[in-house]
Design a protein that fits this description.
99 residues, mainly alpha
Length: 99
């Protein structure tokens, strides 16, 4: 059975991440494994490629979930930072009441 996973470590253009560390890279690898499963010469080869494709799908989904959670956290941090900047720009309540 050929092992055609050598391109899984090729980084996408303009990225310092390996393809296996990206959602697109995982999904691409899963699609390639599904194609190989469809053309496999034996039942065992087909199963191996189908399992591999499923594994790449799970990995891609996990990376996507982590990226989404990270983006949500960054947005929450930006909102908090902005609200603290607005709070710092307002005069303290004591100063406003002394006028």
């Amino acid at each position: 059975m050929p092992d055609d996973h050598s391109d899984a470590a090729t980084p996408p253009a303009g990225s310092s991440k390996e393809a296996r560390e990206t959602v697109a890279g995982c999904r691409d690898r899963a699609a390639k494994d599904r194609l190989q499963a469809a053309g496999a010469g034996t039942e065992n080869s087909r199963r191996v490629f189908e399992r591999s494709a499923a594994s790449w799908d799970v990995r891609g989904n996990d990376i996507q979930e982590a990226e989404d959670a990270s983006a949500q956290q960054r947005a929450a941090d930006r909102d908090l930072w902005a609200s603290e900047e607005r709070d710092d720009a307002s005069p303290p309540d004591d100063a406003a009441s002394k006028d």
